[in-house]
Amino acid sequence: MVTVLQPGGPWNQLASASFLLSALVSDLLILRLFLFAAYIFLFAAALTGYPRFPRWGWQDAISVDGLAWSSTIIVFHGYAVWRHLWDERPIRFRSEDEEQLWRLFHRRSGMYRLEMSECLRYGRWARYAAGDVIVTPGASHLRLHLVVEGLVELEVDHGAGKERVLNTLHSGTIFDFGVANVFGVYIGFECAQDVGFTARAKTDCLLYEWSIDDLEVFASRLSPSVPAFWRSFVLCEVGLEYAGRVHPARGTRSANGEWEGPEYEAGARSRDFTEPLRPEELPPRRGLWGTLRAVLRVFDPLPPAGLRHCSTPMSGVMARNRLAAVAAAKGLEQRATLQQEERAQDDVEAAKAVAGVK
């Protein structure tokens, strides 16, 4: 004979309701909040001896294993809730230059302030006077440089017997494009032993520079949103560069599709850096109805196909492209180091020979 048990107490009912709500929402923060609440209620139920409905209080008993399991799980869900809430805090940059750098990335990739602050933990600002050498051929594939202000002259050497190509880079341009293959999408411009370039400051310049190791961290160790934003940024850079090459007489456009001013050609910062965000570029202000619509969008118990799939370059062809880009850069770095050591040894031998003659 089957016995129908008395319903569980209020703590168990609240926990079950929280589990149900967690199954109905798609927002990760809200989902974690409901799971955190569910285990809080289970902890209370175990502490009070799992009272039966409608009693809330003590049953002269305590569930040790229930307390152990629920408290352990509460720690992990609690940390996740704190992490997601902390990610939503207002982000303030340390300087106006960092603020402007974020504006450029926001306009050209949609990157949020949080992801920009993560990227600014790596890399460095670098100033160069007119005429300074920024990159030599031996180190031309080891860093990604972003021109913030000024003009950079790029002399590309395609090998012995081939023509050298001179390009002038303006504000908002990156080089070397080949390093960006580390984000998993093959865009060409890959590192090659017979192709290098020399970058010189044509005017006084301000650049931001990331090493290949920094980009490898962005591609494989940070939030999946970071490499996705970077791929969008590189796509925008390639598109703007292509448009400028195809229609050189028309000038250069910004990420908003508007023409850069005449001062841009002289080395001034792109308007993507300097112009404050317009109302349409800011998150919309939510009134009562906007807030209600946002809450309703959270409830999505039937997720679309492919929701768990993300484009991090950790497997498949994207991982192959990432690893190939890193290996090529590292191989060139080792080759350049060996060449420097050989030249240093030759200098030592030559100095010894001169000393011997004397």
Description:
There is one protein chain. With 358 residues, the chain is of the alpha+beta class. The protein has ten helices and eight strands. It has helices spanning 10-24, 28-47, 64-87, 96-109, 113-119, 212-220, 225-246, 271-274, 288-298, 316-357, and strands at 124-128, 133-135, 143-149, 152-157, 164-169, 174-175, 196-201, 205-211. Strands 1-8-3-6 form a four-stranded antiparallel β-sheet. A hairpin with a 6-residue loop joins β4 (152-157) and β5. The longest helix has 42 residues, at 316-357. It starts with 9 loop residues before the first helix and ends with a helix.
Kindly list the characteristics that best describe this protein:
358 residues, 10 helices, 4-stranded antiparallel beta sheet, alpha+beta
